[in-house]
Amino acid sequence: MTLRLDDCYSIERLRLAARARLPRPIFDFFDGGAEDEITLRENVDAFQRLRLSPRVLRDVSQVDMAAPFVGAPAALPCAIGPTGAVGFGWRGGDVALARAAAQAGIPYALSTSATASIEEIADQAPGRLWFQAYILQDKARLTDLISRAAVAGYEALVITVDLPVGGKRERDLAHGLGFPMKLTPRNVCQFARRPAWSLDMLLRRPPVMPSLAGLAGRTADRRAMKSVAGRNYDPAFDLDDLARLRDGWKGRLIVKGVVNGLDVDAIVGLGADALVVSNHGGRQLDTGIASLAALPEVLAAARGRVPVLLDGGVRRGSDIFKALALGAAGVLTGRATLYGVLAGGHPGACKALQILRDELQRTMQLCGARRLADINDDMLRTVSP
């Protein structure tokens, strides 16, 4: 099934469009999760177990979706979260996402494993930029990346703390997929079924991840039961190391990957400016708690000292509404905008944000909320599984 962007009226339709144009191993790399993918599904299902209880007889002819967002104004209560290897799905996809975010008036977070450099994003897509740093074993490389982000004007450093080791992503194992990509008997037929993508990769060569170029000097071991992600990361990284990073970074510090309230005091105490409740999109630890289910505990532990954002499972504007109603300061989009760029590059990324914006506006109007401040948990009800 081939879908034009004009036919994509939901994030799920963008997902189907992306699936239609990509070889199965590449689509599954972006779409899949760890092991049995229970957490991947739970991230979405948790939103569906919350029901909306609208208020009525309110003037909602105009709604305002703008709000302060991690220290600066944003046109929507969201940012495009860090997603790696985007260029393997759409060449130039990282720049396309960053431009879409700038045009929408929201921040964009560049992943360490992006297929664009820190400077390329700053030059081609100026806007509110965050740099997401994985904790590399090569500390000289990590220090250099963070320094480059500061020089390039990135306003925030996002430290991902939920990836001490790579997860077990069984879709990738089934396809024999690794990076750098190599043809194997298991994936060559799948690539041949998508000749446009395959010819582009053959003639122009696959993209590289410039921030990780040269690390480890080896390809992924396709026999190892772990994902490519995590093989260069430092499992010894702890609170003292995070404190040293905080001392050396003069911008805002966002800590991503917090789901347990017991971790909050220490992270806030060392100077974090915001937290992101996230389980890495269900891509690392399976059977971990859904992000939305973890949100109330983290909010309670934060006690209003820092904004708490949510990442994972956002597929509808109503999902953003529900996260805000529970007390989140906003959300990070991951797969929602990723499906858009994989389906249609920059126009697809813009389409994804337009869908979420329109759905959030409609949900606010139907629930009687004229401003984001009007959204609260009085408008939510929980249904049994």
TrEMBL record:
FMN binds at P82, T83, G84, S111, T160, K256, S278, D311, G312, G313, V314, R315, G334, R335. Glyoxylate binds at Q132, Y134, R169, H280, R283. GO terms for molecular function: (S)-mandelate dehydrogenase activity; FMN binding. Pfam families: FMN_dh. The active site is at H280. Its cofactor is FMN. It comes from the Bacteria. It is an enzyme of class 1 (oxidoreductase). Its EC number is 1.1.99.31. Keywords: Flavoprotein, FMN, Oxidoreductase. Residues 3-385 form the FMN hydroxy acid dehydrogenase domain. Belongs to the FMN-dependent alpha-hydroxy acid dehydrogenase family. This is (S)-mandelate dehydrogenase. It comes from Achromobacter deleyi. The gene is mdlB_4.
